[in-house]
TrEMBL record:
Alphabetical keyword list: Plastid
Major place of residence: plastid
The keyword Nucleotide-binding is assigned to this record: no
UniProt key word Plastid: yes
Annotated protein name in UniProt: Uncharacterized protein ycf23
Compartments where located: Plastid
Pfam family, any one: DUF561
Family note: Belongs to the ycf23 family.
Length: 126
């Protein structure tokens, strides 16, 4: 099992501030997923998005447990974009993967068919 470092929420906020001072262009929030439900799985990331997005001026990207249902919650909590890699990577069919990205984009009010997403919320799949 890989070694994991866990910071308290106040330490994460301080780290985001320090990274911004050092010139980092975006802060990504990844938090432990210990619950099984859709909302519970995303709750640690959602919980961190609000205070971190309030103390830094750089974009905050929320990931960990996000998908069609919870991605809009991340934006509401202050995230500039969302990462939905786990929602995509668990699928075995490319068509299902595309459908998941399109559904998540639609839940954010973004057309997945746009050639340019400038000034739109970011959907990241890694």
């Amino acid at each position: 099992m890989p070694h994991t470092h866990t910071l308290s929420l106040p330490d994460q906020i301080k780290l985001a501030e320090l990274l911004e001072q050092e010139g980092v262009g975006i802060a990504q929030i990844l938090r432990n997923r210990v619950f099984l439900g859709l909302i519970e799985k995303a709750m640690p990331s959602l919980e961190a998005a609000y205070p971190i997005s309030r103390v830094v001026k750089i974009p905050v990207m929320c990931s960990s447990g996000l998908g069609v249902v919870t991605a809009p919650m991340a934006i509401t909590a202050g995230a500039s974009g969302v990462g939905v890699g786990s929602a995509i990577n668990k699928l075995n069919d490319v068509v299902a993967m595309i459908a998941q990205v399109r559904s998540t984009a639609a839940s954010l009010g973004i057309s997945a068919d746009k050639s340019s997403l400038a000034d739109e919320k970011i959907v990241s799949v890694t």
